[in-house]
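Researcher: Please translate sequence to structure tokens.
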Amino acid sequence: MNILLINPPNSGRSIPEERYGITSLKQIFRGEPLALEELAGNLLEHRVRILDLKAEPDGFPQALLDFQPDVVGLTGVTCEANVVLQLAARIKENCRATVVVGGIHASNDPAFFNHVAVDYIVVGIGKKNFAALVAALAGGNDKNLNLPGVIRTNPGGQVNRPLVRNSVDDLVMERPPDYDLVSRYRSHYILEKLGINMGFVVSAYGCPHSCSFCSIKGQTGGSYLTKSIAAVIRDIQLLGKVPVIRLVDANTFGDVKRATALGRALQESGMKKQYLADIRSDTVVRHPEMLRQWKEAGLRAVIIGFEEIDDASLAAMNKANKAAVNTEAISILNDIGISIVGDFIISPDYDENDFARLSTYLKGKRIDLPMITVMTPLPGTPLHRKQQHRIINHNLDYYTLTNAVTQTKLEEKQFYTLYAQLLADSHQNARL
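Model: Translation complete:
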């Protein structure tokens, strides 16, 4: 069968840009479509192409015409969900392909894709189940399909998210991602600030924690699953001369014993790579020796979700951490020489004092690249269930994490002006 996997174009919209001409807050997603590369790696019995509309925005019509797909797989985050449906409708207008939608939004809110243009929804990791679905379609055995995590759409009716808890079998780690399918796009996948090529590798899925705003839990049902060290090393080697590897795990260091062994294996591999990875600040504080080892292996920077700067705000997010731990982690990483990408979340309830407080904090801490987003109740998360009644903007195009979709405490223009100024000030001396 001909399988076309599509990464949607950049499609998020910006309230501050559209209403107030503030362009500095618009979110642009970059990087290779690793989820599709992983799917492709488990479809060796079929002809597979990946179309990355972020890198090739005008490639859609020609790809349908040239490839004549039997199955089209679409993925997308929440702010891309509307565009995914639009693409699905265009596919149905132009060919007879079976349309399958997966990804993080589909996993958290599958009912959104219960649409006439979509035939199946895949929730969870999907690598194993999508291949099984394709095999059933190829054999004409899909009429009584019963695959965990695969939903046949029922337009006009209801679909329920199945209770899926993925296991390591779903990683199909013996079949690596097919990086060759995006070789023509490789020059687009750069670390923009440094102008160097960056490749994506996944070493772990899910997260053992339950922050109220986070959508990761919908991907694995709460499981924390790790690839074997041999598979991670193999995947990095498959990226050849790409100098910087972004480990796109939600928490690379969720299993400290395994993470320590991975760091040692990277060091012993002789690969001259640099790495970016996610870690919790409490893990830094408890295991600084592990970070020193990773520094020797090539760890260039870590991404840490600090989120807020006081204990009360952290507790309100169900963030199992303390502000003092964040401060200690910053000091440890500064001492080791590992750069910090620090994630912070501002609330639509912020007033002038809150913006000033965060600004003062950032000026007093050596965080190499602060990333500041707006608290957004993403569908499927505990935060969405709690704040559903407060949402005033239901258009998912604006769910980029840089728009307030609940009412702001400040006058809206003032909120975005202070947000833009905070971001500009914090990036003034940014480095990695």
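Researcher: Any highlights?
Model: The CA atoms of residues 43 and 131 lie 6 Å apart.
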